[in-house]
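[09:14] KT: can someone run the structure on this one? pasting the chain below
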Amino acid sequence: MSESLLQYGNRINIYKNVCQIIISQLNITFDQLCQFHYHYHHNKQYEIVNNDLLVNMNTSNIMNDHSNTSNEIQIQNKMNYIRSIQSNLYTIQMNIQKLSGWYLLIYRLLTNIPAMLICFIYGLLLNRISQNYIMIIPCLGCILSCILFIINLLPNLKLITNSMIFILIGGTLYGLCGKSNAINLCVHSYITQYSNKKKRTNIIGRLLGVNFFGLAIGALLLGTILLKQITKSGEQDVTLLYLMNQSNLLWNTELYAYYITCYYSLMFIQLIILLPIIENKFLIRDTTLIIIGLFTEMIRLLILSLLHHKILIFLSAIIGSPACYITTCTKSLISKLVIYNDELNISLTIISIIEIIANFIGGFLFIFIYNKTLLYYSSFIFIFDVILNIPVIIIFIWLRYKLIEYELNRN
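[09:31] RB: done, structure tokens below
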């Protein structure tokens, strides 16, 4: 839960600071720019252009008198003024989206690269030091980072107005302590040492299920606490950027937090309730669950890219929730394929490092592509994600066939 609040809260703060930096050079208020959206009152009688400008769209009473040319000119001038404001705000918002994306990328760089090196060191020490001692270090790093993030929120303590220096330093410190990846490394090492292969998928599923439950609660709290603020979040960053950019959805931070809550809650149910039933009753292979998760994830991405309705987007969270099997079953499968116990910690360390590298590269790639395609076809990034999943599915189908063949030959 704390991880969810920490990461999503920092994204919100970065976006807010970028907004403040840009509007400090403009003759416009923060609410007009950073909370710009459209609403319709009753039967579209009124249109709110921003928080300060309310325009009556029902001009039939004014236009009844066709002989009054001055009224027509006033109405036309007012509508032209509204269109110019909308156009200017849209251009500024696009610039904010692009600049915020690069700042988010810098934040990911400062947190993930140190974490990758530290997890490598932790992996070498797992055979010498207890997992409990190593797990304490990321917790202490999280506390120290939160202190710096709090300092950044206090305007009287900021060295530079609208500066993000404390966010970046806090992210670096958190990365130097290993982030949550170090905790996951230690926990998975403990599970692989003290569990048998038959129950390992179930145990790892419970672990990640509780993790998703914490993420869901954290996202729910975030949406409640940070009401009326705009946020951003590889795919999480782009999903939020994309949803907030769809004016026809009337999306806001609170609604996005509820979407994340729904998504992670369903993952929690999948791993805690459904996975044990599947493991015990149907004896489905790990590779089969991975393939199912990849297919449902692709369907979710296609719904996000092609269908722009709130209900359908929440439906995509339901359909895509089996994607939680991908990570769970992949880690379980790798641990089962390792024959010698001495190699388990090395394998888990490599997995943690690869996860960190993937997070950074994915964040860079997705933000870069989203910024380049934003003005042309903002949905392209999700279609691109679907295309990337196709070779992964092919690989796991091939792997499933080879593992079955190997087991038959072994027997």
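[09:33] KT: thanks! Residues 34-67, 221-234 have pLDDT under 50 and may be disordered.
[09:34] RB: yep, looked fine to me
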